[in-house]
Amino acid sequence: MIQVYPASSRFEYDKGWLKGGHSFSFAEYYDPENVKFGPMRVCNDDVIAPGKGFGAHPHSDMEIISIILSGRLRHEDSLGNVAVTGFGGVQRMSAGTGVIHTEHNPSEHENVHILQLWFEPAERGKQPSYATGEFDTAALDGALLPVASGQGLEGVTDMGQDMTIYLSRLEAGQQIDFKQAVGRRVFLFVIEGELAVSGAGENVTLGRRDTARITEAPELALTASSPVFYMLVDLP
Q1: Could you read off the pLDDT of 91-101 as tens digits, one per residue?
Q2: CATH class (in words) of the domain with range 10-135
Q3: Is-above-0.90 flag for pTM?
Q4: Which residue ranges does the record assign to the Quercetin 2,3-dioxygenase C-terminal cupin domain (predicted)?
């Protein structure tokens, strides 16, 4: 089944310093029918103004992935980690038994645009940890490039859940076939452009900021209707 969530269905927010949309229940937005998809709990599409950000706040028992789309994001936490990451970088925080952190835009002039994703961990109560990773942005072209994974992929930022986050850029007409084990899920998020998705006898087209939650379709054909940049998450 391919369930489409158009961009217009997201909870949109504009706090002045922070703008974007929530794909799942988060903060002041709560919909009991839209709390999670498998272990996926959050997909926030955030644009943070120059010099602004999130003050010190705690997390526990959550795998938190920040993918920077433009600008730079600074992270600092109670474990002593400090990192500044731009496009081509991923930040991963495994909150475990508890960690306090801040996130902000260190630029005086440029917004930072991030996708922040939260997932329930495969194992609760572990020691908290933090890591950054980098990927070759040119390798996104014509491919599904893994950028974070709990499946032991070499050279890919690790995380504490049996899943993989992929990014991909396709030119109009290009197609990628994606296969996974029966019983797993796929979450799709179109960052820019338009993507045609076929699987299990269904055909849908996703536009900019549309998402899809896919079950019982272990083989998917992903075709760019126009130049497209998108994220695919392979979930248990």
Answers
A1: 999 999 999 99
A2: mainly beta
A3: yes
A4: 147-235
